[in-house]
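Inputs:
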Amino acid sequence: MAGGDSAAVSAVEGRLSELSTNSEEKGLPRRGKSSSGRTLNTAQIQLVASHPEVYEPCDDSFALVDALLSDKAQLLTLKPRLCMEIGCGSGYVITSLAIMLRQLGSGTQYLATDINQHAVETTQATLEAHGVHADVIATDIVSGLEKRLHGLVDVVVVNPPYVPTPEEEIECNGIASSWAGGLNGRQVIDRILPAVRELLSERGWLYMIALEDNDPLDICHLMNEKGYASRVLLKRCTEEESLYVLKFWQDAASGTNASHAARSPRSESSWLSQLPFKSLWHKNA
Amino acid sequence: MRLLTHNMLASNARGASTGYPLKLQVVKWTTKEAEPNADFLRGMLPKLDWAALVAATHSLGLPGLLPESPPTDAELSADGAADDEGSALRRLHRALLEIHIEEGTLVCPDTERCFPISKGVPNMLLHEDEVRN
């Protein structure tokens, strides 16, 4: 691959509001590509490099970063040692996260993976342009890291390929790998989740985007069976899709320990009642 | 890629038993200074494969950077360690987080499969018929 082909400068930019209060966020203008709204204390993530085979930040990326921003205070309290993005694409999300948590300095280190070789180069360029660092690795999900990073990662962020597509589209290594999700858009998600559970530390958090079509409630149930609680951090409807940003964390009351109890309808409802999830779900559905 | 990541990375090539540690062949590396963080280093220390880390520094031509056995918690926490260039803390910090491998190759210890490092990014991708079952 020629090295120069990713150097085209793109004027496309996303915005990272560093406002720590999430209540104000509702009043912000939408962060679409055409948004001209600007807020105080706004750091800009500039796309310094683009490539026809790399997914540019779009509504889903902005939703994920907005959700992370709404959780910024909790993240700063968590002081994650290792943060990781799976499927880093343009680098918008991992760069935003690193800027958001900059005050943690060398106490927090970042890793990012993508199966697309053009994407890892673009991510590297985006990180460098913003003076932050992540070790970027071209690999399939977390292949090569699963053993040694077992239980060590405190924050995982994923904007997975969630678009329902024919299965064969998943095999593509170019830009299609950023969206092609196979049946119900779940085929790659369902490979990512077990990998993430291997990597997450006991206090670790997963932030992941899912589409209505992916059956996010089913994803949450599945994770609950494995001992993870969940909630919807953000829901956003665009012209094309309804996006959810889900947050997962290990919870002693979930999973195998609680599986016996979870079978009774009463505890099932008490589990759901702990989540803003269900109410949010029905309200917005 | 820094040695922190090298310490966490293994080969999944077919035929590999552990695929770890990856042999490091360095063509180009740089140093980027960062503020040391004792908490991070103390927390990571028990998770590191010390022998692999020491071997990696040797392949960079820095045989004196790290001692043969890992520093103790007390050594990493010693007063003034952050300001003392030669302290155990600063040396570990340098090895793990300040050295960036820009160009080179990672070699699977079991199969000799080569994974190139280009522009700082290791490429661990395998063809379908190369992946360990």
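Chain A has one domain: 13-284. Flag for discussion at group meeting.
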